Amino acid sequence: MRDDVKDILRKHDLKATPQRIMVYGKLLELGHASADMIYTQLNKENPEMTVATTYNILESFVKAGIIKRLFSSTNKMFFDINTKPHCHIYTETGDHYTDLFDPKLTEIISDYLLSKKIRNFEIEDVSIEIVAKRKNEKNYK
Amino acid sequence: MRDDVKDILRKHDLKATPQRIMVYGKLLELGHASADMIYTQLNKENPEMTVATTYNILESFVKAGIIKRLFSSTNKMFFDINTKPHCHIYTETGDHYTDLFDPKLTEIISDYLLSKKIRNFEIEDVSIEIVAKRKNEKNYK
DNA sequence: CTTCATGCAAAACATTTGCAAAAAG
DNA sequence: CTTTTTGCAAATGTTTTGCATGAAG
After folding, report:
1. Of A2, A68, A105, B14, which residue is least crowded by CB atoms under 10 Å?
2. Is A25 helix (H, G, I), strand (E, B) or coil?
């Protein structure tokens, strides 16, 4: 698994440093996380991990296209290990994303947007965030 | 128009202070803006306008439901004067939103999401951000 | 009057910078 | 070896706090 990560990094012209492997591994573990969360957790496990490095690495990963920067309504940077198109269910508190893989919805939207060219803009990506609140356990069956 | 704003505020149990009227008016003028932009512009026009008050007011407006907090990939707070469902075209730089009122797309998505209840979540709002780059003038007809 | 909003200055966060030292390929 | 990347500490920028003063209803 460590080696798989190394391969992914090298395939994208990123030197496989231990710090990069840690960051990628952590995001693999968490799925979605803020830069801050990633830094805090890694630093606890390995005190030489620094803030600046964490941010550098995340930026380099986004540039390389191996992770995605998320839209958020907080003022923190969030990232997603999954780069394929999918929707998110976003809790009111803004600190948690749940993936919603719904090929049909994704298809409906991309077909529609592609069919309808938007004058003067070239679409690069579409982000769909569903703001929702978790129902309490009693209420669902 | 000043009076219209007063009415909107009072209808939502917000005291119609001059500062609130200014903030609402500015967002009406700009459509979308960051907290920081609103503060900076208002403070230039009226030096007694303060940062804390600007943030307080924006927060109270969101709570009252008369403006919406936007999703963004920068780490700044952005707001939208328009609370009706619509999509945004979001430029790469993240500092500018263009409204895309597309009743059909909005309808497609909300119909789909409503028809398909998501186990365990109650949908409150859906936000669609289309990341795009502006084509240069020469390339569009 | 009473309650709620504002202004101020300081604190708290999150993110970025610049640069020397260290490590990857 | 050469080129990147890391670590550090300080700087930047944005948002939040606490509390006394002032204004709205």
Report:
1. A2
2. helix
Q: Which residues have C-beta within 8 Å of that of residue A102, sequence separation ≥ 6?
A: A86, A87, B116
- pTM of structure: 0.92
Whether residues A128 and B133 touch (CB distance < 8 A) is answered with no
| Sequence-distant contacts of A79-83: CB under 8 A, at least 24 apart | A79/A27, A79/A32, A79/A33, A79/A34, A79/A35, A79/A38, A80/A31, A80/A32, A81/A27, A81/A28, A81/A30, A81/A31, A81/A32, A82/A31
Residue A100 corresponds to which amino acid? L
Amino acid symbol at A61: F
CA A120 to C1' D24, whole Å: 48
Residue from A127, A129, A133 to probe the interface with B (highest B Cβ count within 10 Å): A127
Beta bridge partners of A90: A97, A131
The residue whose CA lies nearest the C1' of nucleotide C14 is A76
pLDDT in tens, A43-80: 999 998 999 999 999 999 999 999 999 999 999 999 99
Q: What is the CATH number of domain A2-80?
A: 1.10.10.10
